[in-house]
Amino acid sequence: MRALVISGGGSKGAFAGGVAQFLIQEAQYKYDLFVGTSTGSLLISHLALNKLDKIKEIYSSVNQKSIFNICPFVVRKKHGLEVIGINHWNVLRNFLRGRKTFGESENLRKLIRDSVTQAEFETLKQGSSDVVVTVSNLSLNQVEYKSLNECTYEEFCDWIWISSNYTPFMSLVKRNGCEYADGGLGSLVPIEEALRRGATEIDVVVLRTEVNYLNRMPVRSSFELITTMSEFMLDRIENQNIRIGKLVANQKDAIINFYYTPTVLTTNSLIFNKERMTLWWKRGYLYAKNKNDETSPIDPEVQE
Fold it and tell me: Which H or E run includes 2?
């Protein structure tokens, strides 16, 4: 039983899309199970449907307005680099409305409903592959995995949306009396769940470098401090998920094939830049090609 697992990573999901495109189209791997967290959950339905051009178009055209109806930050260029700052008016407006987060991501929810149709959902249900998304139940202090086969169309679209809600910058969602947030808060790389569901060989796309090349600059505001702390905690969760996944795979005699990003793609995955994400998709494809074909010359774009 072969599985494809895609980690969280915001805009870096474009790289994972490129990797998956090679694995499905060129390597022609047939997956029985797709498991995703956050941006990974946005990808896997389309990958299971083999609608690669459709999801590539989405990841090549999405921007901040596609995600946020209330964006909590502004993006500025400083010394040629994109940096974020707090959008005081939007954050204040959200709090005055009684919201618990800095921003709201209802536009992403609409985008998911528009991109995964009822007919496509039924096609997925009739297929042989299972599609599973990861969410964090903050009320019960546990990670939950929502299978396509256990949901209605509306429920499944909402679980994809919830899996991608990077709180406190995006929406906090209440379902069945519990508050839910981004699946990455508990399981950023859900290898263990794929193994629990019977996978014997897993291709895992991890949206960070295998070795840490990054030294963060000192924070300049409370907003930057929150984002830096969040990224630090997610890195620790990711490392733990990978270590546990390797241990369980060894116990079950399962094979794991890792696809890390070869370089640091971005220091802020909440910035959605269309041109950059289009390039990342291409680089993901080329990276997977080179990894699976040692005789291929390495494309210079992959080495950037």
Answer: strand 2-6
